[in-house]
Amino acid sequence: MKLWLALRLARVLVHLVAGLATCALLFPLASKGARERLTRRWSRKLLGICRVTVEQVEVAPALEHALVVANHVSWLDIFVINALHPCRFVAKAEIRSWPVLGWLAAGAGTIFIARGNRRELRHIFKGIVTVLAQGQRVGLFPEGTTSKQGEVLPFHANLFEAAIDAKVAVQPFALAYLDGAGRFHPSIDYVGDTTFVDSMFAILRGPPVRARLSSLAPIDATGAHRRELAEQTQTAVAQALVSDS
User: Fold this and answer.
1) What is the pTM of this model?
2) Fewer CB near the terminus (10 Å): N or C of the chain?
């Protein structure tokens, strides 16, 4: 391993350990606002170490209280969103087993969901409604897995019901990772047989990344059906990504 790559990896690991300490020691005592500031600052530093800069495109202002729904490209997605608009995330249970990042996500309050477990899904659904009712922002990747850049897989509708029950809007976010020429970045795709470690090394070895986060127009959930919300949100995200390609 080249020295510069080893040093960059060491910086990431040290920062991850610092994040674990923050979650264990500071989060239990911190107010909601303080937790958001800590999350935003920590996420920005992690992205900086990975040479990822974040660019915000405001098609509509990001709401302070909403069900945030985004396309899922990379393990970076959570940190890109948190660098600008910290959320309590719903994520697949597999993330919990990721080295260090899984522990960190758990400590930051991520809600993990196991595929195909209907009993757990009902329990988590109630938890999401409760968090939304408390005035917090919840983030969700309804594709259920990562997709190739520029593509959007069908959005699963089940958890959109939480926005209806909590009487909050659904706000789509569109994520794109670009290179210096404005094309989709070749080091970011996290699909197929790519492992978390493979992805981490590809990003650390590759050229700088520009992460573009577009906050799109909120969708009113009042009186809506979850399938309608899922379809409208998927269409909005897909259309936003076309403009990035």
Assistant:
1) 0.91
2) N
